[in-house]
Amino acid sequence: MNGTDEERLLALAQAWADAIVANDVRAIGRYMTDDWVLVDQDGIGTREKFLSLVASGDLTHEMMRTVEGTARVRVYGDTAVLTARVVNTAHYRGQAFHADEWTTDVYLRTPTGWLCTHSHVTPAA
C-alpha cells in the first residue's frame, strides 16, 4: 500500500471529523461527493439531509474521535476504504447522545483529491 495515500486519508478523516465537531456545513460538505450516503440503523441518509440537519442546528457534535489503534486504510487504485471505531457526543433535536460505532468510509480519488462517497456506521458492542 502507498503510505502517502494512507497518511492523506487518515488526515482527511480527522479534518472531516473536525469540521463535523465545528458544525461547519460548508467545511463538512467539502469532504463528500454530491451523492454521498450514510447507512445506519435508520436506513440510508443523504448528503442533503445530513447537511440540512447541521445547518438548522438540529444536529450538533461536541466531540468525535477515532479510538487509537483501530483505523485501517486500504487503497484499491482510485478507491479507498477506511474502517475505524469512532466515539462521539452530539445533540439531535435537543436530545444528547453518545455514540460508540464502527465506521466504514469509502473514498474516491478525484481530480481535486479524495472525497467520501459512502459511510456506514454500526454500533459497537
UniProtKB/TrEMBL annotation:
<protein>
    <submittedName>
        <fullName>Nuclear transport factor 2 family protein</fullName>
    </submittedName>
</protein>
<feature type="domain" description="DUF4440">
    <location>
        <begin position="9"/>
        <end position="115"/>
    </location>
</feature>
<dbReference type="Pfam" id="PF14534">
    <property type="entry name" value="DUF4440"/>
</dbReference>
<dbReference type="InterPro" id="IPR032710">
    <property type="entry name" value="NTF2-like_dom_sf"/>
</dbReference>
<dbReference type="InterPro" id="IPR027843">
    <property type="entry name" value="DUF4440"/>
</dbReference>
